[in-house]
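[Automated response] Your request has been received and processed.

Submitted sequence:
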Amino acid sequence: MKTKSFLETESDTQAEQTAPRQQPSVLDQAGGTKGVVYSALPALAFVIAHNFSGITASIVAALAVAVAIGVVRLLRRESVQPAIGGVFGVAIAAGIVWFTGSAKDYFLIGIWASLAGAVLLLVSVLVRWPLAGVVWNAATGKGNVWRADKRSRFYYDVATLVLATVFGARFAVQQYLYATDQVGSLGVAKIAMGFPLLALALLVVAWAARRSNKRLTAIGLLPAERG
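Generated structure:
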C-alpha cells in the first residue's frame, strides 16, 4: 500500500487549513428540516389543546411539547440550541397567556415582533444600509465594499423590501386574526407564514448576493473567485 510522503501530508494539511469554511445556512442555524418542524409543534399543541380544554391545559401542552423536543434532540446528540430557544419563547408566551387569561395572547409577541422587523427593514433601506446586504456580507466576510456600488445597493434594497413585505404580511394577517379572536386560525397562520414564507424571501436575498458579487467582481471591487 502506497503511503504519503511528508511533503504530501503537509500539503494536504495546509490545503485543509486554507480551505474556506462553509457558512451555515439559515436552515442549518434553525436546526435543519427537523428543527423547522419542531418549531411549529408547540403552537400546534397549544391550538389543539385549546380546542378541547382551557387555558391551563393549552399552556401545559405547549410547554410539554417544547421540553420534549429538547429532550429528544439531546438524546439524539443533536444541537439543542434551537430547542432551548424554543422552550424560552414558549415559556414567555405561556406566561403572557397566564397573566392575561386570553389564549390569543400566546401569539402576541410574534405578531408585534413581525411589525418591528418590517419597520426595521424598511428604515434600513431608507438610510441606505439595507439589512439584507449588511447581514449577508458580514456573514460571508465581504465587509461593506458592496455599498460603494449603486447597483449592488439596489439589489440588496430589493431583497430587503421583500423581507419587509413578508414581515409586514405576517403582522397584517395575524393582527386581524388576533383582533377577531380566531385562535385556531392564528396557529395555522403562524405555521404557514413562518419559515416556509421566509425561505422564499431568502431566495431573493441569495439572488441579490449573486448579482452583487458578480457586479463587484466585474468592476474590480472584489477579487475574481478561483475555480
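Summary generated for your ticket: The first helix runs from residue 6 to 18. Residues 166 and 197 are 7 Å apart (CA to CA).
If you did not submit this request, please reply to this message.
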